[in-house]
């Protein structure tokens, strides 16, 4: 294959095949964006159903059982299938470019990670059509989930197991990429903050997902193969699940928020036209948050009865996290301070993120006080808190990142006007929905109730909350219109469309060539592209002569490996009912997976080279300089 | 990679210097090997002498930990340059695993 094959126009089927087999990090990023976006919409519809049900007292829009399924799937979908994959989309699209790499370290594994996530998520969501979704809450605490009838919780266990493998692979891949593939001159302390947060979040994935895997395996054996890890009657202990879940679950929230911090740390310097204030303290704070994130999980379990000593230790550790987070907040404010600010859509999100996230952080410190937590526990106060940090932090970052990195991923620019309307609707709706929930919680409304009675003072608050949710939905719809509009018009905006791009990803031509960098760039400091611009150059100084580039071939095996596990999961689940076809299906699925792995191991695929001559031919065509 | 050779693989580096580094390396390996055998003898002796199990178990575990460190740092060359990232991740992993086990021993089975 040569470069010519890549520049040809493809038909529709050819495009689909290209995306099914791609190992290019930029295309995998688009796959993550589409799949994550789809699950985000599904989770959003579930959220709307929750708010419709709770808009008025004694509502019967959904039944109690269905309500439990909806809240479970809303939480699970949003965390595992929407927020994390969407962040992975940006990590894939941006991080290799930011460090000056031609791809991630293991392109095949990258594709495998995506397809595992996708099939895991698909499996989980098929539960809606196959006899009922999981209904034990997104935390799926053991006694409740073991007692849950039907296959709902089995879908949860197997679906998350499969998608968890994918996430773990993605995390390891990013770690290896950042450690080994930085361009010449890109030392650790010159890495952009988004790369740093990707690095720390990937390390958290590496250490946090194995406990989840173990917990899910135990749950799977308890439910499907007759073991008794969590079954008290059989000598097990139901608390073990809670610990495993939160040893994973607390780092998980930092896996979500750290890349969000990273996105904002790129946006602030760009639109304030100033170097990020306190870069090294930002790096330090990121690493410290990652480190402390592993020592605080039991604050989710203060009311379990751990005893006063354990509660006190975890309370103090939790409060300590406010310190590095505070460092970050002040650094962002100082970055804007005295800058030449332009309020583009990403900047609007970034500026509004600071107060929103601080509000969520403050209620977090309130809950860290263990005695106070006995009052807050399982009330709407908790719901308000974690939506303030996740929506006010992560979702705002995702929307900001969509606008900010859209030109990088697609070569087009989302409409600023529609973007500002989305921002206004979403931001208003967000505060309208969740601020009042603090007070609902303090007034005694428990979380996860499917309805409430009139005359208890909860009507107005819940109605306001539901109206706010409608605003958020409207904002998301306008965003979708914006996306469709932009892509239909398809106005290519060229390289460095924000004009003030500071880091390496803005230095490459748009649309980016599939090999990213013809010559690896020489990095001479933090904000490498900005340094060159300040010296009147328009391009990076190359660090190597033009030479052959080694590229990986596309592969279909990642899709097949994941598909095999997807099929096998059905067999594993239905063998509980003694269905005669279940065991054969399990075996066939496993055969597909291991057969594809064997094929991959036996076949020698050394990839191909782009030759120097073809690269020289490309010289005039690349980009719109 | 710098860590593939026990010292510099660069032929320009002084031959005498490389010989000296290799000799140092060899001496450390012999010393740690001797210590490891000695620790094993101690472990057997502790069990054989019939001390209380509250002494023997922590003592043998401690010796085991030291031996693992010797193995990693001297026989598997983790003390050399170029192993910073593996060290960081190994120790972090050990730390997380230790915290998990500590939790399960202290606040689950009460």
Automatic annotation (TrEMBL), chain A:
InterPro entries: Cyt_c_oxase-like_su1_dom, Cyt_c_oxase-like_su1_sf, Cyt_C_Oxase_1, Cyt_c_Oxase_su1_BS, Cyt_c_oxidase_su1_bac. One of its GO terms (molecular function) is heme binding. Pathway: Energy metabolism; oxidative phosphorylation. The chain crosses the membrane at residues 29-50, 70-94, 106-130, 155-181, 193-221, 244-264, 276-297, 309-327, 348-370, 382-406, 418-443, 463-485, 555-575, 581-599. The keyword Ribosomal protein does not apply. GO terms for biological process: electron transport coupled proton transport; oxidative phosphorylation; respiratory electron transport chain. It is a multi-pass membrane protein. It is found in: Cell membrane. It catalyses: 4 Fe(II)-[cytochrome c] + O2 + 8 H(+)(in) = 4 Fe(III)-[cytochrome c] + 2 H2O + 4 H(+)(out). Residues 11-524 form the Cytochrome oxidase subunit I profile domain. One of its GO terms (cellular component) is plasma membrane. Belongs to the heme-copper respiratory oxidase family. Cytochrome c oxidase is the component of the respiratory chain that catalyzes the reduction of oxygen to water. Subunits 1-3 form the functional core of the enzyme complex. CO I is the catalytic subunit of the enzyme. Electrons originating in cytochrome c are transferred via the copper A center of subunit 2 and heme A of subunit 1 to the bimetallic center formed by heme A3 and copper B. This is Cytochrome c oxidase subunit 1. It comes from Domibacillus epiphyticus.
Automatic annotation (TrEMBL), chain B:
It is found in: Cell membrane. One of its GO terms (cellular component) is plasma membrane. Keywords: Cell membrane, Membrane, Transmembrane, Transmembrane helix. The chain crosses the membrane at residues 28-49, 55-76, 88-109. InterPro entries: Cyt_c_oxidase_su4_bacillaceae, Cyt_c_oxidase_su4_prok. It is a multi-pass membrane protein. Pfam families: COX4_pro. This is Cytochrome c oxidase subunit IVB. It comes from Domibacillus epiphyticus.
